[in-house]
């Protein structure tokens, strides 16, 4: 048993473990993975560790083990803080995005009330205005995609760019 422990210890000490160079954080929402954040530790570590060639604080420590353990500890804490902030930010932004969906839907419903619900309604509107369907859809998408408030959408359409005849 003792020989086995000794040989296992020797095998473990011979096997140099290299720290990972990439950390991939899985981003989950309600338990479902929605994406990943990857960090290249070889690139970020020099930005964090400015001591570069400084001596180890005590001479009895193995410098390579000290650097390896310090790097692992510091990066683990940093990643933990990033995860916390990432989830907080993601939660906040998802709430805002849900509000954006609601706003976009309300604007589309407003356009339907102003211009009609069917293709025939739009064809009549476009025909009566002397403009092309492309001009109408351009106007509609501008309205939907921009934050500008328009109180009377139909009036705005009529006033928009007098068509060339």
Which tags fit this structure?
165 residues; mainly alpha; rod-shaped
End-to-end gap: 99 Å
Mean residue pLDDT: 82
Q: From the helix content, strand content and strand pairing, which structural class follows?
A: mainly alpha
Biggest sheet architecture: 2 strands, antiparallel
Name the shape in a single word. Answer: rod-shaped
Poorly predicted ranges: 1-15
- Count of all domains: 2
Helix-strand string:
HEEHHHHH
Radius of gyration: 31 Å
**Widest sheet: strand order?**
1-2
Helix fraction? 55-70%
Number of strands: 2
Beta-strand percentage range:
5-15%
Number of helices: 6
Characterize the structure shown:
64% of the residues lie in helices and 10% in strands. The protein folds into two domains: 83 residues, no CATH class; 44 residues, no CATH class. The protein starts with a helix and ends in a 6-residue tail after the last helix. α3 packs across α5. The chain contains six helices and two strands; from the N terminus they run αββααααα. The N terminus is likely disordered. The protein has a two-stranded antiparallel ribbon. With 165 residues, the protein is mainly alpha-helical. A hairpin with a 2-residue loop joins β1 and β2. The radius of gyration is 31 Å and the shape is rod-shaped.
